[in-house]
Amino acid sequence: GQLKEAVRVARSRHTLHQQLNALFEKTFAAAKEIRNESAVGENSVSMAAAAVKMAAQIFPDISALNVLMVGAGEMIELVATYFAAECPRRLTVLNRTLERAQELCQKLSCEADARILTALPEILAEYDVIVSSTASPFPVIGKGLVERALRQRRGMPMFLLDLAVPRDIEAEAGELNDAYLYSVDDMVHIVQHGQAARQQAAAEAEKMVAGKVAEFIAWQQTRNSVPLICELRDQGEQQRSKAVTKALRRLRKGTPVEEGLQRLSRELTNSLLHAPTRALNKDSQQYPELAEVICQIYQLHGKNQQH
């Protein structure tokens, strides 16, 4: 996003060189193609990213969810940041001290409200996603509390993620219907699998990048030949114009049309072939590769070359 915005600003101010602009365009296109055609972004390699992806497997739309963070430490801050990026309908942070919860809410990219931890029993049923990571030596969310919340939700599932050690959520809560409970151990397994898959996908993506780099270099080399191509065509056009002028002059003097066309074609052929013929006669001994180049240019088989 930042790079694209920088390119947009540079274009608007006419400070972006043509080849650099082409490089950015091809880079953006390559990045999009790699995202679409490789699995490089499909596997989560952090607990925070995995938490959002797992919630999305249970609920189709994160933006329609109420998300509750229990605690306000580093792990909760990471997970809350990822969920805030998805703009949930409601995001709440519960903590033993309200001030710390408010500080975390102010850091997030979406609107969030802070509550004191003692409010947990009365508000738990309002939330679809609950992520807990406190320093409590005992569970702060028991099976009975989850069971009561599920009854109030009337069949609406709950995604519960316990990132605390020791556990914040009683393991027995995972036995309840519509309660999807995951622990740190579950997340570690998911992240490890994601890292292995990401490494394989990254290797495939690197091959795609190498191919795109080769394509750009080839395109750049082609662009470098453009001035020479233009000069060559200009020279050919001058020779053609000169030959046509001479032919028209002869026709005005009464030269038959057929004879005039024959002389025009011979003169034009001699003119266009003068430079390569002269180079072969003069420089082919010193530069033996010259004959091969001319054969390639004019699509000749070189049958009469002497070896």
From TrEMBL:
Domain (Tetrapyrrole biosynthesis glutamyl-tRNA reductase dimerisation): residue spans on this chain: 204-300
Record-listed E.C. numbers: 1.2.1.70
Quinate/shikimate 5-dehydrogenase/glutamyl-tRNA reductase domain segment(s): 54-190
InterPro entries for the chain: 4pyrrol_synth_GluRdtase, 4pyrrol_synth_GluRdtase_dimer, GluRdtase_dimer_dom_sf, GluRdtase_N_sf, NAD(P)-bd_dom_sf, Shikm_DH/Glu-tRNA_Rdtase
Pathway: Porphyrin-containing compound metabolism; protoporphyrin-IX biosynthesis; 5-aminolevulinate from L-glutamyl-tRNA(Glu): step 1/2
Keyword list, A-Z: NADP, Oxidoreductase, Porphyrin biosynthesis
Gene3D superfamilies: Glutamyl-tRNA reductase, N-terminal domain (3.30.460.30), NAD(P)-binding Rossmann-like Domain (3.40.50.720)
GO terms assigned for molecular function: glutamyl-tRNA reductase activity; NADP binding
UniProt GO BP: protoporphyrinogen IX biosynthetic process from glutamate
UniProt catalytic activity: (S)-4-amino-5-oxopentanoate + tRNA(Glu) + NADP(+) = L-glutamyl-tRNA(Glu) + NADPH + H(+)
UniProt record similarity statement: Belongs to the glutamyl-tRNA reductase family.
HAMAP family: Glu_tRNA_reductase (MF_00087)
Name of this chain's protein: glutamyl-tRNA reductase
Organism annotation: Snodgrassella alvi SCGC AB-598-J21
Upper lineage: Bacteria, Pseudomonadati, Pseudomonadota, Betaproteobacteria, Neisseriales
